[in-house]
Amino acid sequence: MKVLMILVILVSFLQSCVGSFDYYMLSEIWPPGYCHNNPCRRHGPKFSKFIIHGLWPQNTTPCETSKLEEFPRDTLGKLEKDWPSITHKPNGLFWQNEWDKHGSCSMLPQIDYFKLTLDLYGRADIKEILRKEGIVSQIGDVKRYTKYQIENAIKSHPNIDAKPQLICYQGNLAEVRLCFDKSPGHKYKNCSTSYTCPLDNIKLPYLYPKLPVMEPEEAELLRAIPPL
User: Fold this and answer.
1) Which of 17, 23, 148, 151 has its CA 20 to 30 A from that of 196?
2) Closest CA to 44 of 31, 53, 33
3) Which of 28, 36, 53, 157 does the annotation list as catalytic?
4) Level-2 CATH architecture, domain 22-223
5) Of the candidate ranges 11-15, 24-28, 150-154, 221-225, the one whose mean pLDDT is the lowest
6) How does pLDDT run across 93-137, given as a tens digit for each residue?
7) d(CA 17, CA 77)
Protein backbone atom coordinates (compact mmCIF):
# COMPACT_ATOMS: atom_id res chain seq x y z
CA MET A 1 0.00 0.00 0.00
CA LYS A 2 2.81 2.35 0.92
CA VAL A 3 4.60 1.56 -2.36
CA LEU A 4 1.39 2.34 -4.27
CA MET A 5 1.07 5.71 -2.55
CA ILE A 6 4.66 6.57 -3.43
CA LEU A 7 4.01 5.67 -7.09
CA VAL A 8 0.87 7.85 -7.17
CA ILE A 9 2.80 10.80 -5.73
CA LEU A 10 5.64 10.25 -8.20
CA VAL A 11 3.28 10.10 -11.20
CA SER A 12 1.50 13.26 -10.02
CA PHE A 13 4.84 15.04 -9.69
CA LEU A 14 5.95 14.01 -13.17
CA GLN A 15 2.63 15.10 -14.66
CA SER A 16 2.96 18.51 -13.03
CA CYS A 17 6.44 18.88 -14.52
CA VAL A 18 5.34 17.91 -18.03
CA GLY A 19 2.21 20.02 -17.72
CA SER A 20 3.99 23.28 -16.91
CA PHE A 21 2.59 25.03 -19.99
CA ASP A 22 -0.74 24.97 -21.80
CA TYR A 23 0.03 24.78 -25.53
CA TYR A 24 2.54 25.74 -28.22
CA MET A 25 2.43 28.87 -30.35
CA LEU A 26 4.51 28.90 -33.54
CA SER A 27 5.35 32.39 -34.79
CA GLU A 28 6.21 32.81 -38.47
CA ILE A 29 7.30 36.21 -39.72
CA TRP A 30 6.88 37.86 -43.12
CA PRO A 31 10.24 39.68 -43.28
CA PRO A 32 9.22 42.75 -45.37
CA GLY A 33 6.37 43.42 -42.91
CA TYR A 34 8.33 42.51 -39.78
CA CYS A 35 11.14 44.90 -40.69
CA HIS A 36 8.76 47.87 -40.58
CA ASN A 37 9.00 47.75 -36.79
CA ASN A 38 12.27 45.94 -36.10
CA PRO A 39 15.96 46.71 -36.76
CA CYS A 40 16.69 44.36 -39.65
CA ARG A 41 20.01 43.82 -41.39
CA ARG A 42 20.85 46.23 -44.16
CA HIS A 43 22.84 43.61 -46.04
CA GLY A 44 22.55 39.87 -46.43
CA PRO A 45 19.82 37.66 -47.87
CA LYS A 46 16.31 39.00 -48.28
CA PHE A 47 13.61 36.41 -47.69
CA SER A 48 10.39 36.24 -49.68
CA LYS A 49 8.76 33.51 -47.60
CA PHE A 50 7.45 33.19 -44.07
CA ILE A 51 10.30 32.16 -41.77
CA ILE A 52 10.34 30.99 -38.17
CA HIS A 53 10.44 33.47 -35.32
CA GLY A 54 10.05 30.88 -32.60
CA LEU A 55 8.03 28.13 -30.93
CA TRP A 56 6.65 29.47 -27.67
CA PRO A 57 5.12 27.37 -24.90
CA GLN A 58 2.23 29.42 -23.50
CA ASN A 59 1.41 30.12 -19.84
CA THR A 60 4.63 28.60 -18.58
CA THR A 61 6.13 28.16 -15.16
CA PRO A 62 9.71 29.37 -14.44
CA CYS A 63 12.29 27.51 -16.56
CA GLU A 64 15.98 26.69 -16.32
CA THR A 65 18.11 27.29 -19.40
CA SER A 66 21.42 25.97 -20.71
CA LYS A 67 24.11 26.81 -23.25
CA LEU A 68 23.27 26.03 -26.85
CA GLU A 69 24.71 22.69 -27.94
CA GLU A 70 26.23 21.98 -31.34
CA PHE A 71 23.59 21.05 -33.93
CA PRO A 72 23.87 18.07 -36.29
CA ARG A 73 24.81 19.27 -39.77
CA ASP A 74 21.43 18.51 -41.36
CA THR A 75 19.55 20.29 -38.56
CA LEU A 76 21.86 23.30 -38.78
CA GLY A 77 21.20 23.55 -42.52
CA LYS A 78 17.44 23.59 -41.96
CA LEU A 79 17.76 26.19 -39.20
CA GLU A 80 19.81 28.48 -41.44
CA LYS A 81 17.22 28.14 -44.23
CA ASP A 82 13.97 28.34 -42.25
CA TRP A 83 14.91 29.97 -38.91
CA PRO A 84 17.53 32.62 -39.72
CA SER A 85 18.09 35.84 -37.86
CA ILE A 86 17.15 38.85 -39.98
CA THR A 87 18.10 41.38 -37.31
CA HIS A 88 21.63 42.31 -36.26
CA LYS A 89 21.95 39.25 -34.02
CA PRO A 90 24.04 36.38 -35.42
CA ASN A 91 22.06 33.18 -35.92
CA GLY A 92 23.66 31.48 -32.94
CA LEU A 93 22.79 34.30 -30.57
CA PHE A 94 19.24 34.45 -31.93
CA TRP A 95 18.72 30.70 -31.41
CA GLN A 96 20.25 30.91 -27.94
CA ASN A 97 17.81 33.67 -27.00
CA GLU A 98 14.86 31.66 -28.30
CA TRP A 99 16.01 28.64 -26.31
CA ASP A 100 16.58 30.68 -23.15
CA LYS A 101 13.22 32.43 -23.28
CA HIS A 102 10.99 29.75 -24.78
CA GLY A 103 12.61 26.42 -25.60
CA SER A 104 13.80 25.76 -22.07
CA CYS A 105 10.14 25.85 -20.98
CA SER A 106 9.11 23.13 -23.44
CA MET A 107 10.27 20.28 -21.18
CA LEU A 108 12.09 18.88 -24.24
CA PRO A 109 15.78 18.16 -24.75
CA GLN A 110 17.36 21.02 -26.67
CA ILE A 111 17.74 19.24 -30.02
CA ASP A 112 14.18 17.87 -29.80
CA TYR A 113 12.80 21.37 -29.28
CA PHE A 114 14.49 22.70 -32.41
CA LYS A 115 13.49 19.64 -34.46
CA LEU A 116 9.88 19.94 -33.29
CA THR A 117 9.84 23.60 -34.32
CA LEU A 118 11.12 22.74 -37.79
CA ASP A 119 8.58 19.92 -38.07
CA LEU A 120 5.60 22.09 -37.11
CA TYR A 121 6.78 24.83 -39.47
CA GLY A 122 7.03 22.32 -42.31
CA ARG A 123 3.40 21.25 -41.99
CA ALA A 124 2.01 24.27 -43.82
CA ASP A 125 3.39 26.79 -46.33
CA ILE A 126 1.62 29.98 -45.25
CA LYS A 127 2.69 31.97 -48.30
CA GLU A 128 1.32 29.30 -50.64
CA ILE A 129 -1.91 28.99 -48.62
CA LEU A 130 -2.48 32.74 -48.94
CA ARG A 131 -1.54 32.77 -52.62
CA LYS A 132 -4.17 30.15 -53.44
CA GLU A 133 -6.77 32.48 -51.91
CA GLY A 134 -5.56 35.44 -53.97
CA ILE A 135 -3.62 37.04 -51.12
CA VAL A 136 -0.26 37.89 -52.62
CA SER A 137 2.75 40.14 -52.17
CA GLN A 138 3.60 42.23 -55.22
CA ILE A 139 5.59 45.26 -56.29
CA GLY A 140 3.74 48.45 -55.48
CA ASP A 141 1.75 46.86 -52.62
CA VAL A 142 -1.42 47.95 -54.39
CA LYS A 143 -3.62 45.21 -52.96
CA ARG A 144 -5.22 45.45 -49.53
CA TYR A 145 -6.91 42.69 -47.58
CA THR A 146 -9.23 42.35 -44.62
CA LYS A 147 -8.29 40.60 -41.42
CA TYR A 148 -11.11 38.14 -42.08
CA GLN A 149 -9.74 37.28 -45.54
CA ILE A 150 -6.32 36.39 -44.16
CA GLU A 151 -7.60 34.55 -41.10
CA ASN A 152 -10.16 32.59 -43.10
CA ALA A 153 -7.66 31.63 -45.81
CA ILE A 154 -5.47 30.00 -43.16
CA LYS A 155 -8.25 28.59 -40.98
CA SER A 156 -10.12 27.02 -43.91
CA HIS A 157 -7.05 25.12 -45.09
CA PRO A 158 -7.80 21.41 -44.49
CA ASN A 159 -4.43 20.78 -42.86
CA ILE A 160 -5.01 23.53 -40.27
CA ASP A 161 -8.72 24.07 -39.53
CA ALA A 162 -7.89 26.41 -36.63
CA LYS A 163 -7.85 30.16 -36.13
CA PRO A 164 -4.43 31.84 -36.39
CA GLN A 165 -3.26 34.98 -34.64
CA LEU A 166 -2.16 37.87 -36.87
CA ILE A 167 0.37 40.58 -36.00
CA CYS A 168 0.63 43.79 -38.04
CA TYR A 169 2.93 46.81 -37.94
CA GLN A 170 1.67 50.02 -39.56
CA GLY A 171 -0.93 48.04 -41.50
CA ASN A 172 1.66 45.57 -42.80
CA LEU A 173 1.24 41.87 -42.03
CA ALA A 174 4.31 40.95 -39.99
CA GLU A 175 3.58 37.64 -38.28
CA VAL A 176 1.23 34.69 -38.50
CA ARG A 177 1.02 32.64 -35.32
CA LEU A 178 -0.33 29.10 -35.26
CA CYS A 179 -1.23 27.22 -32.10
CA PHE A 180 -0.76 23.53 -31.35
CA ASP A 181 -1.82 21.13 -28.64
CA LYS A 182 1.12 20.02 -26.50
CA SER A 183 0.07 16.35 -26.46
CA PRO A 184 1.71 13.87 -28.89
CA GLY A 185 0.61 14.57 -32.45
CA HIS A 186 0.44 18.31 -31.74
CA LYS A 187 -2.89 19.04 -33.41
CA TYR A 188 -3.68 22.60 -34.50
CA LYS A 189 -5.89 24.56 -32.11
CA ASN A 190 -7.48 28.00 -32.16
CA CYS A 191 -5.24 30.86 -31.07
CA SER A 192 -6.55 33.73 -29.00
CA THR A 193 -7.76 36.77 -30.95
CA SER A 194 -5.13 39.36 -31.84
CA TYR A 195 -5.94 43.06 -31.96
CA THR A 196 -2.73 44.32 -33.58
CA CYS A 197 -4.09 44.10 -37.13
CA PRO A 198 -6.73 46.49 -38.45
CA LEU A 199 -9.99 45.04 -39.73
CA ASP A 200 -9.15 46.02 -43.30
CA ASN A 201 -6.50 47.68 -45.52
CA ILE A 202 -3.84 45.14 -44.52
CA LYS A 203 -0.83 44.92 -46.84
CA LEU A 204 1.47 41.99 -47.53
CA PRO A 205 4.45 44.16 -48.50
CA TYR A 206 6.77 43.11 -51.28
CA LEU A 207 9.68 45.42 -50.53
CA TYR A 208 11.65 45.80 -47.36
CA PRO A 209 11.36 49.27 -45.80
CA LYS A 210 14.13 51.76 -46.49
CA LEU A 211 16.57 51.71 -43.60
CA PRO A 212 18.59 54.63 -42.27
CA VAL A 213 22.34 54.71 -42.68
CA MET A 214 24.06 52.92 -39.82
CA GLU A 215 25.96 55.19 -37.47
CA PRO A 216 29.69 54.33 -36.97
CA GLU A 217 29.12 53.71 -33.25
CA GLU A 218 26.32 51.24 -34.03
CA ALA A 219 28.49 49.40 -36.55
CA GLU A 220 31.31 49.15 -34.01
CA LEU A 221 28.96 47.69 -31.39
CA LEU A 222 27.66 45.09 -33.84
CA ARG A 223 31.18 44.03 -34.83
CA ALA A 224 31.93 43.48 -31.14
CA ILE A 225 29.20 40.83 -30.76
CA PRO A 226 31.03 37.49 -30.54
CA PRO A 227 29.73 34.68 -32.80
CA LEU A 228 28.45 31.53 -31.09
Assistant:
1) 23
2) 31
3) 53
4) Alpha-Beta Complex (3.90)
5) 11-15
6) 999 999 999 999 999 999 999 999 999 999 999 999 999 999 999
7) 32
